[in-house]
Amino acid sequence: MNRCFNRGIYEPYKRIVKFLFGVVILSVQMGFYWYVWLHYYNQQMEVPYNRTGHWLMVAVYGLLLVIFNIIYGGLRVGYQRTRNMIYSQSLATVCANFMIYLQITLLTKHFQNAGPMLVMTGAEFLAVCIWSPISTRLYRMLYPPRRVLLIYGEHPVASLMGKMNTRNDRFVVGEVVHISADKAWSGEVQKAETRGMGSVGNNTDRTDQERVTAGRVQDELEEIKQKIGQYEGVVICDIPSHVRNVILKYCYGKSVRTYTTPKISDILLRSAESMHMFDTPLLLSRNAGLSFDQRVVKRSMDIVLSLAALVILSPVFILTAAAIKAYDGGPVFFRQDRCTKDGRVFSICKFRSMIVDAEKEGHSIPATDGDPRITPVGRIIRATRIDELPQLFNILKGDMSIVGPRPERVEHVELYSKEIPEFGYRMKVKGGLTGYAQVYGKYNTTAYDKLKLDLMYIQNYSVLLDIEIILKTIKVLFMKESTEGFEEEVSAGIAQESAAREPE
User: Fold this and answer.
1) How confident is residue 432, by pLDDT bands cut at 50, 70 and 90?
2) How many other CB atoms are there within 10 angstroms of residue 96's CB atom?
3) Rounded CA gap, 405 and 45, in Å?
4) Residues 84, 152 share a domain
5) Looking at the domain assignment, is residue 282 inside a domain?
6) Does the pLDDT value for residue 112 go beyond 70?
């Protein structure tokens, strides 16, 4: 009770608290830059800046820090773990320092000694290492883990429970409630939805069995209502839509926070446009993938960025090709049929990381940790994701895009489509070198959840989202928990997972 009381006091000020934490570390970093600029780089100018110029330079640096911290989540106190805060802040700092160094180079008209900038980066890293644990600890003192009630339907929630238990700094599952999904029970709730929660037990013109069922439903709903009032939030997972709607409306009326695992239909509605042609609200979902102008802009970005990347990374291509050829004399590239937009098949290109004829049996054999088929060179290029770089040629050719759902093997598409009928939705756009699921998913993210992530990208596409995903890909490149694509999952587990999917 004391924890709830404290949360009630400080809850309205949560955004202000996060803002102040961010101001502290940004002020420290801008202070470091002020000193380095004033005492070194400004002296290299043909005409040194005066006070106004100093303020402008520091303001630009602060803006860069804010932009990269927004992209990498470096200021999300309470949302990220301490080690992830340090990683995100450090990555944002390096990017901001690199950009500001380029600006200094342009202003002074020649490359400057990077020593002061490196020293400043080290000092900022130290400040981040001190700030992150202190701010996180203070935040958790003010906002301890939220006690939640978990409500689920017919399918087990062990997977979600396991994930929530990894974030016990944010959630504590106090109780788990199972909601029956038998037709009689669900039918009563569906009728009650139009009358409001708690109005189920109307016995007029009912059979004895219907009265018994209505009474049971009434009792269960009342029990759920009482339990909801004892917690600070409700997690709604895998329950029929009409039952979920009743609980959501009740929680909304009582101002109780809810966390809901979305269905595919929810994702499709999230991007719908509001229309007010008459006095009944309409939600418009075009459901046609990208528009013509979006496709033109996206294709232009693909051409420019892939060409630039091929030029910049050409030394990496040459060294990698030489290493693969020197190891066993086999082919440098590995080609495989994949599916892209509208199910069209193309030949994807990668650096070969396995022995020659690694799949000579003629069927897909997913790689595992310590797979003997992976060569020593292959282990290095797979760990650093260099093996994916030849796909830049596929992008330039038009088979793929830089950002989009990962293109899957033909046989995997057929298999997944049988088990997950909505799988084909993700092929409304070209496959990508990186994607939403690769940035926000993890190595053990289920196939169905990856599908949802891909659909969130398709339904909410924008140029800014593409840029955000490209920049965030840098962050997840060397994170072991980052995800690849569907192809690295064991096919035998697809059917098991599909059987446990929530009902639409």
Assistant:
1) very high
2) 24
3) 47
4) no
5) no
6) yes
Q: How many structural domains compose the chain? A: 3
Q: What is the pTM of this model?
A: 0.78
**Whether residue 99 is found in the same domain as residue 190:** no
For 471, the domain range is: 292-499
- Answer yes or no: is 275 within a domain: no
For 161-204, give the DSSP string.
HHHHHTTTTTEEEEEEEE----HHHHHHHHHHHTT-TT-----T
pLDDT digits (tens, 9 = 90+) for 283-332: 788 888 888 899 999 999 999 999 999 999 999 999 999 999 998 888 99
Task: Tell me how far apart the alpha carbons of residues 168 and 173 are, in angstroms, rounded to a whole number.
Answer: 9
* Distance between CA atoms of residues 478 and 300, nearest Å: 28
Phi/psi for 465 (5° steps) reads: -65, -40
**Sheet of strand 408-409, all strands in order from the earlier edge strand to the far edge:** 345-351, 333-339, 408-409
Q: How confident is the model at residue 8 (pLDDT cuts 50, 70, 90)?
A: low
DSSP-derived secondary structure for 367-418: --TT-TTB-HHHHHHHHTTGGGTTHHHHHHHTS-EEESSPPEEHHHHHHHHH
| Two structure tokens written together for 463 | 């140029």
